[in-house]
Amino acid sequence: MTEKQRKQDQLAREILTLSRNTLLVNLRFLDAALSQFQWEPIETGSVMTDGKYILYNPNHVLSCYQCAKEIPVRDYLHMVLHCVFRHMYMSPTLNRSYWDLACDIAVENIIGELGLQSATAPREQQQSEVLFAVRHDLKHVTAEKIYSYLRQTVPNPVRIAELHSLFYADSHDLWYMTAEKAEAVIKPSSSDGDDNRNSNDESSSGAINGNDSSHSEIADRNSCSRTEMAKVWREISRRMQMELEAFVDKHQGMNSGAMAQNLTAVNREKYDYTAFLKKFAVMGEAMKINDDEFDYIFYTYGLQLYENMPLIEPLEYKEIKAIKEFVIAIDTSGSTSGELVQRFVQKTYNILKSTESFFTKINLHIIQCDANIQEDRKITSQEEFDAYLQTMKIHGLGGTDFRPVFEYVDRLRSQKEFINLKGLIYLTDGYGIYPAQKPDYATAFVFVDDDYSTPSVPSWAIKLVLQKNEI
């Protein structure tokens, strides 16, 4: 590093320090988040973070500060919010162009809403028209909601690139590079591929210099601690959520609605419906060789001695965990009708079928109910389930009362329709009359709620809250 470069780096660090301290003074609830980073200079590109490091190009930082001293403050806050909402820990199946833009829109919307004078930048005015449209169409302006919104309303890649330039503050290259490095640690590759790692970058931003070994080492260290950093930021987000309300109470002029929405969304308890459904498994027998109890020595010895006549046959039955008797109840009031119900039943069916959960003969009842029982379809085989899905129609659409389903199931049990009923899953919006008494079988209420709320259920029931995109 030359003397000129050292001076530039020193000035850039002073600007970053000033930006961080400005945010600390004005947004005390961000203190833990602002203190998490290590700073490392890079030769090309702009600024970027993976949650542990902030990589910065000194020339870029100095240029931004020269344009307006508020820009580095806003960019710093922009990167911090990416980490708070854990935007870099995304699903690998997401479309990168849409996800990058959705994350930038989400955090820029929050920064604008906070009304922090020291973070007001010229790009804020340019963003206003787009943000107005997004807020008008979306109840919750989170990265996940914006991502779905963009996929539905902005299919043109050229328009996506235009919007990206309006909301750009930091490069997201390190998010994806770290994920690739982590995968390489688990499954070593014959080629390192550092030079090509940024070839799919769809933004106009600069990337980490692939030939700089120090940057590759940083990416390696990041990938090893990726899971640890995700846990750190999860705790920071939860702490922020608790402290934000008290902070806003002291600063009456501050609007923190979008911040609170995003914190609620990222900190909500997420459920694995597949794992949940398996909890209803019961022990039973299925036609399958039991490898644990089968003696291969006697079997092969018989084949050798008597030619194709084993001394012992393999056991044809094996105890497995599987769902044999089960009830799926569907609240067919207006809020849970139509395509959503069919998708839920289809998802449940897919889970059952893919996890050895079906016996040759099963006893599955799919009950539709609003304030009264509207339909009970008994399923005894996969073929019947396939036929039901193809002809399924929603009945009812009236009020919601959960009690008729439980009364009806109790009658079926008294009539010996169920011998060992393991459980009942009730898909609903949560607004109805619950039974006063606990049933003799496990019961779960599944709520499909995009408002990130948590409806109350009786103490004896299991609650599962899913988003529509999780179904």
How much of the residues is beta strand, in percent?
A: 5-15%
Helix and strand succession? HHEEEHHHHHHHHHHHEHEEHEEHHEEE
- Contiguous runs where pLDDT drops below 50 for at least 5 residues: 182-215, 218-224, 283-287
Please, what is the average pLDDT?
Answer: 78
General shape: elongated
Percent helix among the residues?
A: 40-55%
Arrangement of strands in the largest sheet: 8-7-6-9-10-11
Biggest sheet, open or closed, and with what strands and sense?
6 strands, mixed
* Termini Cα gap: 54 Å
Alpha-carbon Rg, integer:
28 Å
Structural class: alpha/beta
Number of helices: 17
Number of strands: 11
Can you describe what's shown?
The strands form three sheets. A six-stranded mixed sheet has the order 8-7-6-9-10-11, with helices on both faces. The protein has a three-stranded mixed sheet with strand order 1-3-2, with helices on both faces. The longest helix has 25 residues, at 226-250. 33% of the residues are buried. Strand 6 (325-331), helix 15 and strand 7 form a beta-alpha-beta unit. The chain is elongated. The protein has helices at 3-26, 31-34, 58-67, 70-84, 96-114, 123-137, 143-153, 157-167, 173-186, 213-224, 226-250, 257-267, 273-278, 296-306, 339-354, 382-391, 403-414; strands at residues 38-41, 47-49, 53-56, 282-287, 317-322, 325-331, 363-369, 373-379, 423-428, 442-448, 462-466. It is 48% helix and 13% strand. It has 17 helices and eleven strands. Helix 1 (3-26) crosses helix 3, helix 5 packs parallel to helix 8 (157-167) and helix 5 (96-114) packs across helix 12. It is an alpha/beta fold and 471 residues long.
